[in-house]
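[Solved] Which block belongs to which protein?

Original post:
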Amino acid sequence: MWKLVQHVIPSWTSPEVKQIAFLSVLLIFRTMMSIWLADVNGRIVKAIVEKDFQLFLKRVSRPCLNVLNIIKAALAAKCDDVSLITAFNLMSVL
């Protein structure tokens, strides 16, 4: 395992370290956003179940929800890109 890590991360100043750190930060941020959005979506469903139409409209009409969903999708795409770059670097070593 240690030899594999040495091949993937040749030095602490290599671009691979920056890619892994960037990917880690993006994944943590995306996870936090997913948890928050799940809570918001749960509140919307609660308003539906309680048949409170005004509360439902109030919760759905928040413009930040659409923006956050777009940001979440962009983060997911960026995480995929960085993951692919790291995987290709790993496969070139093997």
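(Second protein starts here: sequence line, then its structure tokens.)
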Amino acid sequence: MGNAKYKAQMQNGRMKDTEALWGRLRKAWNRKLKEQAQALKETHALVWTGDSRLQAFYRYLNPRAHTRSGGRVTRTRAYDDGVQEGRKVTIHRPVAEKGTGSGRYLRGRG
């Protein structure tokens, strides 16, 4: 087998593994966001009840919009590891106050 052909096969295999890892992380992250959304629903008094005409209005503005779903994933050890890592992801709130504007992390002497 030629060296170029071998490299191409290895690259394709790595790319598939990388794409699968990111897919697992996104799935675990979405699950975590849904859990947070559920917790927010339980802790806040205001609850969105929906708007019966909102979907029709959206379709009127965007007639070509379609919903698509992805394919199935074979559950492997790598998949489960990715889900576990995705659950560890913590999303922090953005910084609320402006900085000093100097753009430096460390202050100079004096």
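Accepted answer:
You had them paired correctly. Confirming on the second one: DSSP finds three helices and no strands in the chain.
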